[in-house]
Each structure stands twice: as C-alpha cells, then as structure tokens.
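Entry for manganese (II) ion complex. Fields follow.
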Amino acid sequence: MRANSSHSAARTRLATYRKKRDFQLTEEPQAGRPTRGGDSFVIQKHAASHLHYDFRLELDGVLLSWAVPKGPSTRAGERRLAMRTEDHPLDYAGFEGIIPQGQYGGGSVIVWDRGRWIPDGDPRAGLKKGHLAFELKGEKLSGRWHLVRTKNERESWLLFKSEDEGSSDRDIVADMPKSVVSGRSVEEIGEKPGRVWLPKDLQLTHPDKVLFEDVGATKETLALYYLSVAEPMLALIANRPLALLRCPDGAGKGCFYQKHAKDLPKSIHRVQVQERGAAKTEHTYIDSKEGLLAMAQLGVLELHTWGCHEDNIERPDQLVFDLDPDIGLPWKKVVDGALEVRGFLEALGLTSFVKTTGGKGLHVVAPIERRIDWEAFKAFAHHVVLAIEASDPERYVTNPLKKVRKGKIFLDYLRNGRGATAVAPYSTRAREGATVSTPLEWDELTPKLDPRKLNILTLPERLHQLGGKLPWRDYDQVKQSITAAAQRKVARGKN
Ligand code: MN
C-alpha cells in the first residue's frame, strides 16, 4: 500500500497516544519513525488490569489498534470483540516490557505475533465503511481475516477468521502463549529483573520487607544503599569492632543491639576481646561488600564502631567528639559549636573531620596514630571538652549527669573509652526519614545545610555527584598523634 499522509500527519494522529503517557515514567516508545508505507502487523499480549491482546495494523505511518479481550480465534467464524483504541507509533511494534503501575496500561507486554498484512482493496475506504478484509502472514496467524464494525457503537468491532488453510480448531492463544521475540511469557516479562548484583552466596530473603516505613525503603533499598556507599564506608569502618542495631521488623519495631557474635554469616568476622579478669567476648567486624550486604540481610539499620581496629584493640586510633544539642537549640549553634571544636583541636595540632549523626548533632572526628592506651586517650578527650566548656559555660556542658542542659550543647567525650562506640560514617539511623550519618567537607557545614536531607534515598545521588571528591578522602593520609606536649597543654587548661 502507499502512504498518503506525511510524517507530521502521523504525528498529529499520535496526539492521543502521547497525551495518555508520561514518558519520564514509561519505557514505551515516544514517537514513530517517518512513514515508509509499510505493511506490518503486530499482536501484543498485554497483562494490564485486564488481560487482553492488542491487535495492530500498520497504515500511513501509524499502527491502527484494537484491544481484543479474548485474543484472536483461529476457528472460522468465531467472533471476538475488538475495541478500537488510539493509534500507536510504529516503534510500538517492537515494544516488550513493563509499563509501570499507575501509568496508563500499567502491566507487562510481550510481542505475541507479528508479520505482514495484505488488505483487500483500499484499507482507508474499508476503515470508513467499517469492514476491513485482509490476509495475515504472521508467525502464528495466517490466512484471511475480517474486522467488522458493529452497527451501534463506532469503536466496537468484531475480529474473525475465514475458513481456509490458516483456520483450525485449536485454541491458539492458550496453546502458544509465548513471545515470538523473546520466547518469554507475559508472566516471565512481569517478574522483577534478576538481582544480578548480589554475590551468589548471599541472597536477600524478603527483599520487599519494608524497613523504613515513612520513606518506603525496603531491605532491598538498604542493600542497594550499602552497595552504593560501600567503598568510602569500608575505607572508614573496615576491621573496626562493631555494635549492631538490628531491627528485623523495621525501624522503631523491636530493635536491639547485638554486640557479640553468634549465628552470623561468614562475611561478618569475629574478634576475641579480653574483658576484665579472664573472660573473653567475641565481637564482630567486616571488611567487604559482602559484609555490608549481610548487614542488610540481618536488618541492621545502624552500625556503630569502636575507636580502634581489631588487630590492636588496646590502641585507640579515632577521637570522636559528639555534639549533642538540647532540643530546640538552633542548628546554627550546633554548626558554630563544631567549628569551635575544630579550632580547639587545630590549636593542639590535630586535623579533624565532621559528619552529621543522622540526628540533630554532629561528630567531630580526628584520626590518631596508635600509640597511647585507652586511659590516656579518654583523659585527653575529657580535658579537651573541659577546656571548651570552660571557655563558654553558657553554651557547653560536659557532665552527662548534669540535668541542666537547657539551651546548651552537651559535649560527649565518653565515646572515647574502651568498648564505647559511635555511629559509623554512612550508617543509616533507625529514625524518622532514614537519615544517614554523613561525612561532610568543613565548608559544607553551614546553617543552610539540612541534615534530614542526607538520607538513604539521597546519599547515592550525592556520592555520584561528588564523584572522586568525597569528603574524608584524606582521612587515612592524616598522620598525627596525641603528643605529650598536647596532653600537658590541654590538661593545664591553656588552649
Ligand atoms: Mn493494551
């Protein structure tokens, strides 16, 4: 047949098709190719809210379309209802896949049959008259067919087969359910894509289990999150003993801390820690992506680290100052507080880093070479916060027992004791909004920064945008010690 309309006419005819779809959301083709006067036909099996077969005939640069609820019958004369629908672009003939739920025609689509059609006479006249007679040369369907418009309703047609060598008594839609393109059934297309990113020995059970209800994040979301932050996170937490907050039923639902190792997968390692007296306890640590994925599998929503590594438990190597503001204290004051702590440490010759806690506080963190023991380490941290408190007692408080913290920032140095922990960088929090304890550059720390916007859903994109320039990337390059001079200086309170 000859094309008698231009490409732009075809585009006009596709206005309805385009209007019904949001091409940001669906992968269906957006527009047709220029008209070539082709004679293709396609039948797509479409598992939408109601299963049907879309019968499409190419004419003048578009696919004329009918939805056939029961599909075509090869039994001569057996009529099947065919509702005329909007013209589709030619590219649609190759479409096989999933239309997202909530979108027009949400569900899965396969190419059930395809080939050429040869109309009797001029199909445009037939279309007008309400009777198309044609031959199909498809992979499943062949022989002569009819589409006849019923008298009453304009868009209601009947599709049926003539008696010939292509007719048969078999139930062809039941006998031949699969795609002529991919060999898959509509059910197979509809299945979630394989989780190829998971290591073979670690399958997620219940990937759809919701762990953060308010943001709709599932166990799979958490696993994908940990994968996206694995590299910078592992650089900071690998081989540090851990305390794990497990919430198998989701945030806020029966969470418990697991400090000691028992019944854990291989990728979560164990380290013996000598307790006071003769007793030893087993703690956990990880050093791989598999370890992080195992955390997701176990429903671990928070990882907290010790300030040391498993190969030298008795030599701390990470100072943490936790700024814990009184409820209602403006964020700007917390920001100022962190900058002040940074300044104090700088005066003692120590470079520090900052991260959000996932709550309203901040952690100022300094890497330290492994020289002094826990006792001296904690004493130094205590002296630092006492000096800061002494500099402005209206703003800071250091005594955890002191009830009166109103309008102040509690400077918590107790994270620096043996066996104490602080939430790990890039750990999620089992809190509202699935916030993340996020490493920052110091110049990102401004009153404008909203720590709630740093969460399980936004972090992967943040890291992507930062590219190689991640905050804390120099953490391991900083070689500094708590010197005897610094200890003396801070103990005298002269900072
Ligand atoms: Mn359809």
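NOTE: Confidence is low (pLDDT under 50) at residues 1-5, 193-197.
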